[in-house]
Specification:
CATH architecture: Orthogonal Bundle
CATH class: Mainly Alpha
CATH superfamily: Winged helix-like DNA-binding domain superfamily/Winged helix DNA-binding domain
Distance between the termini: 60 Å
Strand order of the largest sheet: 3-5-4
Number of helices: 6
Strand content: 5-15%
Shape: extended
Number of strands: 5
Largest sheet: 3 strands, antiparallel
Low-confidence stretches: 1-9
Length: 138
């Protein structure tokens, strides 16, 4: 039994609504769509990675932030962490089936954004020009 919105209910009976303040799906959505979460999931879509391999793949992420991101994604059931008792120790990260489904949708969004960047850059230039003209008139 879980408590949601003040009522005790089975998890299967919950009607999740990301727009509701108390909905637990908000946290997962934040983990998935945050800068490091989405890039980490996207990188793991390509396969299994060790921590440092993943850190190199997600250019710019700090060790601390990647660690926090992986913990959150593992807790949400999107990433599987496998520690092997070797010398030196080896830890591999890969997507779970749920993580693979979520990452697949993110990859579609990433490809859409990358493919439309000329339009985005054009829109940015037009916006910046309008802002500069408005600021000059003020």
């Amino acid at each position: 039994m879980l408590e949601y919105g003040g009522d005790m209910t089975d998890a299967d009976d919950l009607a999740f609504d990301v727009f509701a303040r108390a909905c637990p799906s908000r946290g997962t959505l934040e983990h998935v769509t945050g800068r490091w979460g989405s890039l980490t999931l996207g990188a793991l879509y390509d396969g299994t990675f060790r921590f440092n391999e993943l850190r190199r793949r997600v250019d710019g992420v700090s060790e601390k932030m990647l660690s926090q991101t992986l913990h959150a994604l593992e807790r949400d059931g999107l990433v599987h962490r496998e520690a092997q008792l070797t010398n030196p120790p080896r830890v591999d990260y890969r997507l779970t089936p749920l993580g693979r489904e979520v990452a697949g949708r993110l990859i579609g969004l990433i490809e859409l954004v990358e493919g439309r960047m000329p339009e985005v850059l054009e829109a940015r230039d037009a916006y910046d020009t309008r802002r500069a003209e408005t600021d000059a008139q003020a």
